[in-house]
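Continuing from the previous page of notes. For each protein in this section, the sequence appears first, followed by its structure tokens. Read the first protein now.
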Amino acid sequence: MKVTRDMLHKELQSSYWALKLSSKLLMNRVGIKMINRISARSKGKDIEGLQCGETSISSNSGGPAIRLRIFRPLHYTGDLPGMLYIHGGGLMMGNPEDYLDIVKRFIDKSPCVIIAPDYRKAPDAPYPAAFNDCYDTLLWMDKYAGTLGIMPNKLIVAGHSAGGGLAAAVTLKATDTGEVKIAFQMPIYPMIDDRQNSLSAKENNAPGWNAQSNKMGWSAYLQGLMKRGEEIPPYAAAARARDFSKLPPTITFVGDIEPFRDETLEYVDRLLDEGIAVEFRIFEGCIHAFEVLFPKLEVSKEAWSFLLSSYSKYLDAYVYSPFLPTKLILHK
């Protein structure tokens, strides 16, 4: 899909050329390394007005210790909902501290405890490193729910972009195995299909994340499997899963000119075919991560309002209320 400036939402058009320039950083390893050097400066940063902590947990697969950030509201007693939040970055970049605004928005909307892993990044640590780190974090949250002050058996899994793809994969394994009970998931514009053969993914030249950067991210993450000629498993790319019937209620949205549009639409349709509750929106003329890059725009405020109100609604329906069915279709 070829994307021109005129296709962008009117509020985004003025940023077109600046975004095109930034795209160049996402298309090569030198740019990715530069972004990661800048990102590393934020490690350890806290959020004013929240209780912020850090710990490390052991890997269950022989990997290095996993650094976790723990965020909770002040002045709350008793158990709160627990959310595993997985940050984005194309599977190659970033750390939890780059996404503190997102963490704060969720906690401010409805109090919860958020655990955010600093998972390993490709190309230095390809699949299954990032997936294992995130799944190990979920298992740890479930095991130590009482100590962490989170409600047992009602965990939430969320993430944006590559973090959304990892969230979808983690939720898929948790529901496949029955090891952890997930109340609902929020894989936002998730990176879930390595095949990149949809209309929106092929030749997408949108400013920001596009087909070229997408290919680079997947190639880095799946390099080990590709070298060995192995089939790509669903826990690496959740769109490859054949059975979605066990997945929990889901919240997501996507821009209509970004590479992940079609795979998100297909994901939503497959959930709905299974009768699974879904809250979904598509935002016209919007690029990848528009609401994170430009949170003050009206279209971004609309996206945040949709996400946070859906999150609050699902907390009431699937965490606080034991009576509502988990297969009520709420598709918009």
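Done with the first. The second protein uses the same format. Note its length before scrolling.
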Amino acid sequence: MIEIGKVNTLKVVKEVDFGLYLDGGEAFGEILIPTRYVPEDTEVDHYLDVFIYLDSEDRLIATTEEPYAQVGDFAFLKCVSTTSFGAFLDWGLPKDLLVPFSEQAHDMVEGLSYFVRVYLDEETERIVASAKTNQFLDNIPHDFEEGDQVDLIIGTPTELGMKVIVNGQFSGLIYHNEIFTPVKPGMRTIGFIKKIREDEKLDIALQEEGYAKVEGVAGEILDKIKKSGGYIELNDKSSPESIKHVFGISKKVFKKAIGALYKDRIITIEPEGIRLIK
């Protein structure tokens, strides 16, 4: 079954002067892929991986180019124009992606980028986007446990932190004071369930809590001490800002890491810093 707005593997059934026709099955018939998108040496009966969408005249068209996001994806896309019926985003294809006014959280401005979800309007079969992303997330109870590793898509900033989408289904939040590495909307990364609130909302951490994370951090700290000649002017009394600047981690994680190194008699903790035991 053909999926509009996604990459499909289709068979070449006919060659014409302006491209190839692909087998779209009984529901869609033959679908054109214009010559400029046809890979060299492609012949009838070959199979191609193509993205299917509607062209400017609302005809099904195939392309070997892939957009920045497919139907069902969340993405951070730039607004390239606004019109009387909506805004258009650059999603990597010749035909820009429409965000109807009804799907804009605020009026979009040309030149700015927005976090959106790409979806298929079932009535028109047009691919559009929505900035009202919460409607696409599940409100049903989840089965996470604190400490679980999860896949994240970084969303938009709020007064408290950065919104994130957890495992493509749930909403979460990373607090500003717990972000120690650069993040930006649309970025994909891994994170950890820090806390599950009574209202089922999720607090997320980019770094694993406890000693599972400390093991890796301890090694990084040790390397920096070695590169600094066996001594570094930071210890458990240093400011969180200084620790973040040098190591990109929280003071809590730093203290656990140097505690582990001290316990193993690898370092000594002095009044002004940490020294490697030779």
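What the second structure shows: The chain is about 15% helix and 40% strand. Residues 211-227 form the longest helix (17 residues). We return to this in next week's lecture.
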